[in-house]
Amino acid sequence: MASVLRCSPKLRTAARVPAARALSTTARLRAAEKPYFPDEPTAPSVSTAIPGPKNKAATAELNEVFDVRSLNMLTDYNSSIGNYISDLDGNKLLDVYAQIASIPVGYNNPHLQKVASSPEMITSLINRPALGNFPSADWSHILKTGILKAAPKGLDQVFTAMAGSDANETAYKAAFMYHRQQQRGGPEVEFTEEELQSTMNNQLPGSPQLSILSFKSAFHGRLFGSLSTTRSKAIHKLDIPAFDWPQATFPTLKYPLEDHVQENAQEEQRCLQEVERLIKEYHNPVAAVMVEPIQSEGGDNHASPAFFQGLRDITKRTNVLFIVDEVQTGVGATGKFWAHDHWNLSSPPDMVTFSKKAQTAGYYFGNPALRPNKPYRQFNTWMGDPSRALIFRGIIEEIERLGLVENTRITGDYLYAGLERLSQKYPQHFQNLRGKGQGTFIAWDTPKRDEFLAKAKSVGVNIGGSGVSAVRLRPMLVFQKHHADILLESIEKILKLL
Amino acid sequence: MASVLRCSPKLRTAARVPAARALSTTARLRAAEKPYFPDEPTAPSVSTAIPGPKNKAATAELNEVFDVRSLNMLTDYNSSIGNYISDLDGNKLLDVYAQIASIPVGYNNPHLQKVASSPEMITSLINRPALGNFPSADWSHILKTGILKAAPKGLDQVFTAMAGSDANETAYKAAFMYHRQQQRGGPEVEFTEEELQSTMNNQLPGSPQLSILSFKSAFHGRLFGSLSTTRSKAIHKLDIPAFDWPQATFPTLKYPLEDHVQENAQEEQRCLQEVERLIKEYHNPVAAVMVEPIQSEGGDNHASPAFFQGLRDITKRTNVLFIVDEVQTGVGATGKFWAHDHWNLSSPPDMVTFSKKAQTAGYYFGNPALRPNKPYRQFNTWMGDPSRALIFRGIIEEIERLGLVENTRITGDYLYAGLERLSQKYPQHFQNLRGKGQGTFIAWDTPKRDEFLAKAKSVGVNIGGSGVSAVRLRPMLVFQKHHADILLESIEKILKLL
């Protein structure tokens, strides 16, 4: 990701004072910077109860054909802009949830508008290829100027997929094929007749009882293989058959980190030992360890670079693959393009999966041996979607042009400092504030979390939770200091309503 | 699908004689009809060996970053049109493979071009929603005028997905949740503490050892759950852990069908008995039976309506769900909008999955009890892609406008008759010609299948196989009689090369 990281930020310094409605005292301190979206609202505006009357009526209609019990808000995407999401009743909320952390460069980003209306987008939308068989003549160029330009250091190959779950599952498949290939003695060793026969019946030895090791509270998706590695909440897993795969404990760190250095290091050591023990002892041999840099759905659980270095070293030592799930952390949100860039690993992960802010999905890898030994072992009709690859390329261009990774690092530090001040003022509402130095990937626990989230819209903020007690911030990469100011004010308003 | 089926075909009768290169005698018999794509080539043109020099060079470049061992042909989508696919060296082939049966209304279809450049397409591309949380205000309208307009009779709900594999897996999840809900005694019965605990460890009773019954030679996808029901080829399954789920025998019919009525009926009865026995006896209880109307990847294996009626009746009787995988058969290719429309079932399937020619994916269902009892049990970030839902709507509009289901039925009958003539002339090259009355969904076995496929491009046809010995035809819905004439001529040319 060298080219993106080298690009200097284009944060402008021209003074700008938000207009609109009356502002509290903190507003006077509001950082002066030029907005990426000059036409964005200067502040949220809320004119009805949320959901308002139009939203309610439209929801009832949608409910006839589509499950609306998870519905948060029917959205008017045409009038959403930058960091602001609009509902059907004309309310405009500062959006720090961003479609579950998946909008990277703002609603109705003008550069993406251009990409979306380009001739190559139109042809890719209407002539969807079976990518493994009939890629377009410019597929190599699209990959090299897009998805692969963002590839993590050391990983120069990609398998494209559709969303996080199948990105993870295809990575698991690659791991299993690689593991068995090593056991067989190399790519040239042929399958046995017994393997060929037994796999047709889902039985050993052709369908081996291998496993992926994941962590407690992890979230890696909801299809059958990925769900077997997901350990976030029972409601995600109940009633669905699962593979007998092992889970290790993810460290539970104490905050603030600087006051618990020794304890936290011990906790991480304990977890690493458990990983190594499971790899060595689990009855279904482990082909790969799967981990999120920051457990996101599971409650924003962090670990130190030392922990991940330890994982890399253990997996090397035990000859197990190391897969990093960057579906939620990837593409800039932690102040680095990839969250694992924070770790200084001794060698790159074997595979890194991506989706969400990439607006497409897949996994990166570097070792050619992770290409299965024969064609059609890792294959499907579409193998992703070139139109979404074009969007990702546009996102990368916009990140480079505006220096958005750097912006997120700087804004994140600014926001974190503001939250520290709030946590000192309202200690009863802030526990385990975390994400320092991790861009805007910030969270804290609060006893009245669900009430907090429910009140947020009334003060003009769209905000999400994670785990059972965390408020999680997932603003876009175009979230700036003046947005942070509004968010901090809004949080204080919510706290006063609790 | 009433509205689509009612629409009368717009096949025009104006005379038209193909120009271009010298034509064989059959060309004189060529059906006179107005083409849907007036600018289509009148015949294939091949000016280099395939792959040609440009193709070879570009393939080598792509190989640096992307697995090209399954590559068939680098494609120039800009100059592909209608039924003709162009390669990088300017060769134009009549395409009866159509991106593994997934292009419905022709390359660069003008109506889809309009849809793809519409303002609502642009907003849906650049503001991708988390559909379960923040659907656009017009999502209900898009569903009702698109995906649900095509819904099979009796199924008025949809869960949207990304591709065939996850469409099938989310249908399986719905089946498992429904099965356990019935066992518990209804949607209002709460999970036990033991279930909540055990599922976090992938263990019983929270993660039950239930199964999906599928058929030998079936193909339902390549993710972990779908792959456990796929039984097409060992290479699809080797080294990947699989669930211990049962497979029943799919009927092996003898052709021509009219000469083997009694035997085939007995064969189907035998298979139905096996299904019933497996449902009653398999050690991992069966929650659903999954079946393709025509086994496609597995070799174009057909069964009669009586067989599928039998499956519907058995599943009703044994209280097991009946899921029909219309990923490859759906959207018109068999001369009905859905292949299961051929069956006259006593009651609709419980779920029908779709992808490929729909250019989006998901599953239809009718019973509200198939919505899980609580939200967030069937959920993921994107839950499909509205931009692809807009394309499907455009496809449905085009099918209606041109009467393409009817066209496919008529052209299919015409093509089948031509193939029957060829099979009488070249009996050594035609075994088990099948797909009569099934639109253009036609196949036959041939001893030199792989040679046949390899020679096809040299005579200007892009054609695919299925199973180990079948040539499978999967033209688009805009395939007309004059294309059928060219295809028949081309097949004869290939046979002369063998």
UniProtKB/TrEMBL annotation, chains A, B:
<dbReference type="Pfam" id="PF00202">
    <property type="entry name" value="Aminotran_3"/>
</dbReference>
<keyword id="KW-0808">Transferase</keyword>
<dbReference type="GO" id="GO:0005739">
    <property type="term" value="C:mitochondrion"/>
</dbReference>
<dbReference type="GO" id="GO:0030170">
    <property type="term" value="F:pyridoxal phosphate binding"/>
</dbReference>
<protein>
    <recommendedName>
        <fullName>4-aminobutyrate aminotransferase</fullName>
        <ecNumber>2.6.1.19</ecNumber>
    </recommendedName>
</protein>
<dbReference type="InterPro" id="IPR005814">
    <property type="entry name" value="Aminotrans_3"/>
</dbReference>
<dbReference type="InterPro" id="IPR015421">
    <property type="entry name" value="PyrdxlP-dep_Trfase_major"/>
</dbReference>
<feature type="region of interest" description="Disordered">
    <location>
        <begin position="33"/>
        <end position="52"/>
    </location>
</feature>
<dbReference type="InterPro" id="IPR015422">
    <property type="entry name" value="PyrdxlP-dep_Trfase_small"/>
</dbReference>
<dbReference type="InterPro" id="IPR015424">
    <property type="entry name" value="PyrdxlP-dep_Trfase"/>
</dbReference>
<dbReference type="GO" id="GO:0009450">
    <property type="term" value="P:gamma-aminobutyric acid catabolic process"/>
</dbReference>
<keyword id="KW-0663">Pyridoxal phosphate</keyword>
<keyword id="KW-0032">Aminotransferase</keyword>
<dbReference type="InterPro" id="IPR004631">
    <property type="entry name" value="4NH2But_aminotransferase_euk"/>
</dbReference>
<comment type="similarity">
    <text>Belongs to the class-III pyridoxal-phosphate-dependent aminotransferase family.</text>
</comment>
<dbReference type="GO" id="GO:0034386">
    <property type="term" value="F:4-aminobutyrate:2-oxoglutarate transaminase activity"/>
</dbReference>
